[in-house]
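**User:**
Everyone, produce one record:

**Assistant:**
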Amino acid sequence: MSGSFSLPLPAEETLRFLERALPPAPALLLEVGCGDGTIAAALAERGYAVTALDESLAVTVSSAAAPVTWVESNFLFYDGAADGKPFDAVLFTRSLHHVAPLDRALDRAAALLRPGGRLLAEEFAFDRVTLPTARWWYDLESILVAAGILTPPDPALAAVRNPLGRWRQEHAHDPPLASGHDMLAAVRERFETGPAQEAPYLYRYAHERAVRGEAAERAVRQIFEVESRLVRERDIAAAGLRIVATLAG
């Protein structure tokens, strides 16, 4: 992995996906939902011309030093770069499932792309999680909390006995999250889309809640390896969804 600064595992995995699917640098990229700017900064280091957008920018000091155009805006009302050039790729890095309404978000993405431009989405497909998957995750969570590696969950949610019922309660949002099924269907209505890729995702929860330190970092990497194997072997469902699509020219 190129780049001059160390990245956490979730960012490494996102960049591995993007680097396989992006056009060559110095393509013009728009990242929607850039968060702390880690991915945008890493892509800028790789020679891309990056515009990074978030409704509430929270860019870190190290990311802010990168040659990135930072935009604080609601994506649905973003009208593009000041010079009017269309983007070569629009990236949704775990943000599309939050943007409502979904159809308007994808229409906006299409309007911002050049003909033949790419839409890349690394997404959370909460609807794909099954009872065995939820049970595996919550059993693992309880062990990691007891070991002091993860911070404890909300006690009210932890008290829910049915793992799938708890999962659904944890992911009940207003407005509702877009499901993996709905995101994929909406993209296919507007873009030429290849087969969707499954990916591990639950290890990201462990990363977000891990108590910092080398032991916790090793644990997160091990969770990623185990989750990846279980997904490949169809023992649990993949909660991660990756979409690569092209705007017809």
Observations:
- The chain has ten helices and eight strands.
- The mean pLDDT is 94.
- The two ends are 32 Å apart (CA to CA).
- The beta strands are 28-32, 49-54, 68-72, 87-93, 113-124, 192-193, 197-199, 240-246.
